[in-house]
Amino acid sequence: MSILVKISEIESEMARTQRNKATAHHLGLLKARLAKLRRELITPKGGGGGAAGDGFDVAKTGDARIGFVGFPSVGKSTLLSNLAGVYSEVAAYEFTTLTTVPGVIRYKGAKIQLLDLPGIIEGAKDGKGRGRQVIAVARTCNLILIVLDVLKPLGHKKLIEHELEGFGIRLNKEPPNIGFKRKDKGGINFTATCAQTELDGDTVKSILAEYKIHNADITLRSDSTADDLIDVVEGNRVYLPCIYVLNKIDQISIEELDIIYKVPHCVPISAHHRWNFDDLLERMWDYLQLVRIYTKPKGQLPDYTSPVVLPDGHTAVEDFCLKIHKNLMKELKYALVWGASVKHNPQKVGKDHVMEDEDVIQLVKK
């Protein structure tokens, strides 16, 4: 029996099952089985190296990577060519773009790579169309822009989210606060630090048994669901920020536009007329959470034209040195920093000092 048939059988059984306390245990088991089958779909078992996807994965350049995901003919290519000045083939029929088209924009001194991915169709997570490769490239991005057509219903948003969820991409979510540690012996040790509405000891044990895990420490630090537990056990989930770009607003009325603006994580634009691009770029910058550090050679003014851009959370002096060259750390004596992260300007700091956006740094070698 093929994997797709097994998946559809489990999905239909889940649809038939009523949701209540008595069936929660059974549904948790089915969800775990479903997650395992989905993983097998993405990574086929054994076999030698097949032919690589032709020209699909693009080398990562710049400081961040943004992928455009959406159904065919919603204006992804028009958006890319008007933002980055890269010509991605545009036509009025579906499936114009067949491979990944990269483009680069410079915004606030950072180089940001934009990827125009081919259109996704329903059932991409089950390997239909080129969906599998498209979503695999989407996993490597720092931010995902889901491009939607304003005229088509928001049902499309649900479908794309469902396809990405099936591939282990979680949009605008935090990783679940669950401690999971495998052991060699001692059985399942289950502790919950707050009241749980869905999971109990038996459900957790049965989900772990489905993965053939019989010895582990599980700590639930928030009210978690069976899906959260499965995500932690699978361990291959990617948590990405996401912006919904509603294209073609030149075809609707002002009243409709006011309603659209209230949808969270949403930016309405018109790719063809280049309307509202500045709002989109500003929102992209907010979601990427990049930190710019300016360099200052000794005895000269700081260079404000080309900052060193670091991801938020990795902005220590050590990260800055490693970004420039790995041997720089060996020669570093101390650093002088001007800006919001220090009390005096300049301040002498060591390698563990964490910098903030638009700080100026001067490295002093031994």
From TrEMBL:
Keyword flag DNA damage: no
A molecular-function term among this protein's GO annotations: GTPase activity
Domain TGS as annotated: residue spans: 289-365
Stored Pfam families: MMR_HSR1, MMR_HSR1_Xtn, TGS
CDD domains referenced in this protein's UniProt entry, alphabetically: DRG, TGS_DRG1
Source organism, top-level taxon: Eukaryota
Record domain OBG-type G: where: 64-289
Record keywords, A-Z: GTP-binding, Nucleotide-binding
PANTHER family xrefs: DEVELOPMENTALLY-REGULATED GTP-BINDING PROTEIN 2
Name of the molecule in the record: Developmentally regulated GTP binding protein 1
